[in-house]
Amino acid sequence: MYIAIGVLVVLLLVIIGLYNSLIVKKNAVDNAFFSMDVMLKKRHDLIPQLLDTVKGYMQHEKELLNNLTRLRQQMDLPQLPVNEKIKLENQLQSILQQVRVQVENYPDLKASANFLKLQGAINETEEQLAASRRFYNAAVNDYHNGIQTFPSSIIASMAGMVRKEYFAVGEDAKEVPVVNFK
Amino acid sequence: MSPASDFTAFYEKELRELLLPLEDQRKKIKKWGVYGFVLLGLAIVFFIIGTTSQLPAAIIIAIVVFVAAIIVLILFANRLKKFTGIFKTQIVSRIVAFINPSLSYSPERFIAEADYKKSGLYLKSSDRYKGDDYVEGLHDKTFFCFSELHTEERVSSGKNTRWETIFKGMFIIADFNKNFSGRTYVWSENKPQLNFLNKLFSSFASGLEKVKLESPDFEKRFIVYSNDQVEARYILTPSFMERLVRLQQMTSTDTSMSFVQTNIHIAIPMNKELFEPSVFKANDFSRLEQFRSTIQIVYEIIDELKLNERLWTKE
């Protein structure tokens, strides 16, 4: 009789332990996503500065810069669904990369102190963003390990925990190419 | 920075002549050392003869010879210490100036214990802390300093106490090229500093989490802890991780680093001394060349880690 109760108590404790560790992992994912969001916002806030600094010099890139301005306006819209947000962020990434490449053709701009400082800030933000993406993916991986391995998988499915999306590995697998002014 | 090939010319022009009187001194000191050890050997022989053949006279001779040996060895040590000081002031400082006139060399100085502790590279508290051969200066935009350090722990087993080395080797501190506010530790896999106990109880460990990184090559050589998972990855980018692996290959499998208060700290365990003159062998070109290449290694480390690349907001 007492043995049965003892076994039940132990079982209960194990279940609680497994559930708690799953919750910790899930929260780590949300936390990582939040960090990423902070970095995305930082990058977003640098765009007006970038536009101001380059538009005087980059006379021939009107279309590229207009794309950038339009994109930023789209991203400013409130209540964007997450998938839409992600799509726009990826587009932003690629446009910023194109701007970076085009800057090579404007030596005056490349040499200007304003631009150099701004480029430093953008490089820093991009790398912090890459770092938070890597952390997010690591947290998601950990979480998946938790919900897929036995026995915590049982608890996970009972609690309705599902897989999360990884962030596009394509972008952070390659090093963010930073322009070197030498 | 002067290239290595000029060193031969520099040696011929400036150092060779200075070495001549130093070599004479060294040979005299070596004699003291040899006599001291020979007397010690004699004392042991007499002692063995005395005890095995029960000759009290032999034992008395052994004691007398032993005392003489000790006196000679003490005098030897004193002379060696003076010689080392003169050698370093005359020769090593010129080598340092040859590499870069703006470098400063202080033979007696060493990295402060507070900085060593702050680096978090060796968590055992040291009972004895000493070092020498402090060099500091600028390599391009990167400020760096290094010295030899020897930290030890007193271990008592019953009535015996002996000294166990915690760290002996070259300790480098350099300006890191990114801004960061937390602390990240990259310990060698061979020398993890956190164990079950201190993880739970030490204030050092509070807030630290293990950081699992993507590179298997890196993960099998290092174990990383940080108080900020994102910042750890900001510092340890994939290409920087590759460079740290190469750094370990360049130096020693026990090399570890940490990133604290915008500095990078590197601890390279080494058995041999950094800039001590040899006493039983000649101090010739090849020995001086060794000194030069030791300093050169620090420059190579800064270059390898690309600390001079300032692409972000830190100047």
Q: Which stretches of chain A are poorly predicted, pLDDT < 50 over at least 5 residues?
A: 169-182
Q: How many strand segments of chain A?
A: 0
Structural class of chain B: alpha+beta
Question: What is the average of the pLDDT values of chain A?
Answer: 82
**Class by SSE composition of chain A:** mainly alpha
Question: Describe it for me?
Answer:
The complex is a heterodimer of chains A (about 180) and B (about 325). Chain A is mainly alpha-helical and about 180 residues long. Chain A has a domain at about 30-145. Chain A has helices at about 1-55, 60-75, 80-105, 105-110, 115-150, 150-160, 170-175. In chain A, helix 1 (about 1-55) packs antiparallel against helix 2 and helix 2 (about 60-75) packs antiparallel against helix 3. The longest helix of chain A is centred in the N-terminal third of the chain and has 54 residues, at about 1-55. The model of chain A is unreliable at about 170-180 (pLDDT under 50). By secondary structure, chain B is an alpha+beta fold. Chain B has 2 domains: about 5-100; about 105-305, no CATH class. Chain B has a 9-stranded antiparallel sheet with strand order 1-2-3-4-9-8-5-7-6, sandwiched between helices. In chain B, helix 1 (about 5-50) packs antiparallel against helix 2. The chains are: A mainly alpha (about 180), B alpha+beta (about 325). The interface of A and B includes residues 123 and 175 of A.
Short description:
The complex is a heterodimer of chains A (182) and B (315). Chain A has seven helices and no strands. Helix content of chain A is 80%, strand content 0%.
What attributes characterize this protein structure?
heterodimer, A: 182 residues, mainly alpha, 0% strand, elongated, B: 315 residues, alpha+beta, 2 domains, nine-stranded antiparallel sheet, 8 helices, 9 strands, flat
Reconstruct the topology from this structure.
The complex is a heterodimer of chains A (182) and B (315).
Chain A: H1 2-55, H2 62-76, H3 82-103, H4 107-111, H5 113-148, H6 152-159, H7 169-173
Chain B: H1 5-52, H2 56-99, E1 104-106, H3 113-119, E2 128-139, E3 142-157, E4 160-175, E5 183-188, H4 196-201, E6 209-211, H5 216-219, E7 222-226, H6 229-235, H7 238-250, E8 256-260, E9 263-269, H8 285-304
Antiparallel strand pairs in B: 1-2, 2-3, 3-4, 4-9, 5-7, 5-8, 6-7, 8-9
Helix pairs in contact in B: 1-2, 2-8
